[in-house]
TrEMBL record:
Family assignment from sequence similarity: Belongs to the class-I aminoacyl-tRNA synthetase family.
Name of the protein: tryptophan--tRNA ligase
Key words, A-Z: Aminoacyl-tRNA synthetase, ATP-binding, Ligase, Nucleotide-binding, Protein biosynthesis
Gene: Wars2
Coiled coil residues, start to end: none
Classification via SUPFAM superfamilies: Nucleotidylyl transferase (SSF52374)
Source organism of the structure: Heliornis fulica (sungrebe)
């Protein structure tokens, strides 16, 4: 949600890819792709954003905490980032999503959006369930 220098962003993409491969992810058994090259993520985020009410996003604790670190009280990108996360989940019709405790509310937003969409347009998106790790 913060502007990045293009060279730094490209390097971050390479570094993240290297880290994923170093963790043992086998590209012969799974798909690795750059999300930014799949326009459907942004397209679905726009559609879902048109179904999501601003007050719902303003209540998210991550918005309240992070907006103070941005100039002028936060950007639209920061406010709508949870809708993009919902699009990332719903685009692939995910049924279960591994999340940390800090992301449970964002997954609940994705669940609410899926239910709202389904009620309005018919059953289309599964309502994803959280997979929380036990430590």
């Amino acid at each position: 949600t913060m502007p990045k220098e293009p060279a730094v962003l490209r390097q971050n993409i390479l570094d993240t890819t290297a880290a994923i491969l170093a963790c043992g992810i086998d590209p012969k058994k799974c798909f690795l792709f750059r999300q930014s090259l799949v326009p459907e993520h942004a397209e679905l985020a726009w559609i879902l954003g048109c179904l999501t009410h601003v007050p719902r996003l303003l209540r998210l604790p991550q918005w309240k905490m992070k907006r103070t670190s941005q100039n002028n009280g936060g950007t639209v990108g920061l406010l709508t980032y949870p809708v993009l996360q919902a699009a990332d989940i719903l685009l692939y019709k995910s049924t279960h999503v591994p999340v940390g405790e800090d992301q449970v509310l964002h997954l609940e937003l994705a669940q609410d959006i899926a239910q709202h969409f389904n009620k309005k347009y018919g059953e289309f998106f599964p309502v994803p369930k959280a997979i929380l790790s036990e430590l």
